[in-house]
């Protein structure tokens, strides 16, 4: 996702197509949020985890994380320049989001229950 977004920004450099650049920047930003969330799950840090629970609490549930993944995939379809890379990336990421939901419905015991933010 981040590589596709970075290529979208690169291909829009020097061109008056600012929409493609903004979509690429958003893709990189959203991919960084998801990447850092996954790193926090591997190497827990209480202060950063509390920050993520406060601001991105939907990532702690399967449905929220899947919806976020599908939203990121829809952003891929907004890129026009590296279309030969953006289209397959969007399809694969969207399919992964749907697969995650289907897998959770079939095997809910395979997923950990994460503690949500309590103010």
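Sequence proposed for the structure above (119 residues):
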């Amino acid at each position: 996702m981040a590589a596709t977004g970075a290529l979208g920004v690169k291909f829009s450099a020097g061109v008056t197509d600012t929409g493609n650049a903004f979509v690429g920047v958003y893709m990189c930003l959203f991919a960084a949020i998801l990447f850092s969330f996954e790193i926090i799950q591997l190497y827990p840090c209480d202060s950063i985890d509390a920050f993520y629970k406060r601001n991105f609490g939907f990532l702690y549930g399967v449905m929220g994380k899947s919806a976020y993944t599908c939203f990121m995939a829809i952003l891929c379809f907004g890129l026009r320049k590296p279309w030969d890379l953006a289209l397959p990336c969007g399809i694969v990421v969207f399919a992964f989001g749907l697969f995650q939901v289907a897998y959770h419905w079939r095997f809910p015991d395979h997923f950990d229950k994460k503690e949500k933010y309590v103010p």
